[in-house]
Design a protein that fits this description.
Pfam families: MarR. By secondary structure, the chain is mainly alpha-helical. It is built from six helices and three strands; from the N terminus they run H-H-E-H-H-E-E-H-H. The chain has a domain of about 80 residues: Winged helix-like DNA-binding domain superfamily/Winged helix DNA-binding domain (Arc Repressor Mutant, subunit A, Orthogonal Bundle), CATH 1.10.10. Strands 1-3-2 form a three-stranded antiparallel beta sheet. Strand 2 and strand 3 form a beta hairpin. The two termini are about 35 Å apart. About 15% of the residues are buried.
Length: about 160
Amino acid sequence: MGDNNARSSCGLPMATPYDKRFGFLVSDIGRLMSTEFDRRARGRLELSRAQCRLALYLSFLGPMTQAQLAETLDVTPMTVARMLDRMQDGGWVTRMPVPGDRRAFRVEATAKAESMLAEALNVGDELADFALRGLTEAEQGQLIGLLQRVRNNMAAPDAG
């Protein structure tokens, strides 16, 4: 059956097969990257992928409130609070009260977290090399540039 006659699992015609749909590809690549990151990081990193991501955002963007972290990570405030409890117990982050707001805490990565990020970035670089194998340097640069443009489009205030 050609692409024009492709059908979904419920029998409806599909204009574009799933493996050629942008949203499906981006989501599936993200899932595969996450799984492979976890496999490669096992035994090398003391933090989970989610905790590494949190520490990385704090390192790149600087200290922020728990609410800002939840928004940045696209998780619930309760999820961030639980992650931070474990990370604070392990010495990876500090939480300081925000003056004038008894309920808010400013979160900062510790030196311990900063030193671990180098290894997390090494795992990420190895994974990128693996994922991009077979592409020339020019193709890799073009792909990264195009993905940055897509991200900028999605982050624009008028997105949607």
